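Risk mitigation, structural track. In case the binding assays with 1,3-dihydroxyacetonephosphate fail to produce interpretable data, a predicted complex structure has been prepared as a fallback.
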Amino acid sequence: MINYKELGLVNSKELFQKAIVGKYAIPAFNFNNMEQLQAIIMACVETKSPVILQVSSGARKYANQTLLRYMAQGAVEYGKELGFSVPIVLHLDHGDTFELCKSCIEYGFSSVMIDGSHHPYEKNIELTKQVVEYAHKYNVTVEGELGVLSGIEDNVEAAKSIYTQPEQVEDFLKKTNVDSLAISIGTSHGATKFKPEQCTRNADGVLIPPPLRFDILEEIEKRIPGFPIVLHGASSVPAEIVKIINANGGKLKDAVGIPEEQLRRAATSAVCKINIDSDGRLAMTAAVRKVFVDSPGEFDPRKYLGPAREQLKELYKHKIVNVLGSADKA
Ligand code: G3H
Ligand code: 13P
Ligand code: ZN
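Fallback model:
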């Protein structure tokens, strides 16, 4: 058993309290490999932002659990070497079983998500409570979820019916004792968050997605004032990045994300953690595709992963400074 404190990590408790009072959100960036991790740390050190390093179960399998622990510890040391020690949380994204959450805690994670949102309400409570009871023994913070994020597979009616129901949140918190709550107000995972028929088009033919349900967020905030709220599926899918991908052999059709102004607005509320994965994937892909098209003779991975890392760093800095508002909060 490794306690996260031995790795130099922190849990999310204090970061969230400061974020709510300061009206900003902590970036939760997913990573699977060294270049992504380097880009995150460089961006956070340069902007002096706290950060949540997110690892999905797929990422854990891809990178290996032992390597991940040393990578997280390395990230702490790397930050110091770059000249500024930012608070770093190592968080399990979308944990689906008690056993996975327990294993991550034993491997040094400082925070875990138990995503019971696909289960019936009572089962979600039972599973979340079990994880919280274990995690709190080690001061590890726990994120739960109520409401299911809509996806491209859902029809509009189904998407409506799975928003978080504000009348459930107090009961869920009381029965589970979670530290933060992910809610569903119209965001969704991936780079194609809405079907074209769910969107309108502006004069240039660009797809405009339906607005987030700030009314639901406000109702939730009223019921649990000061409680940390989490937004998943918060990539904005920048049109200029999609354009580079498609101009260099990619085929991303109807990619559409959450407009950054709406995320900015959410960040000033009780939303204190905003999850971004797809935008990073898109930025890396655009950079790599461009190198392959511009320099077909190139075969040194540093020559395409290096530019990808640079693109990622710029993207993260932009999110921190212009969207989440977490710069200078470390
Ligand atoms: O919400 C899911 C994250 O984007 C992680 O995705 O399971 O493909 O690693 P993944
Ligand atoms: P995106 O797919 O919008 O980046 O969401 C990521 C996420 O919610 C990770 O949990
Ligand atoms: Zn998510």
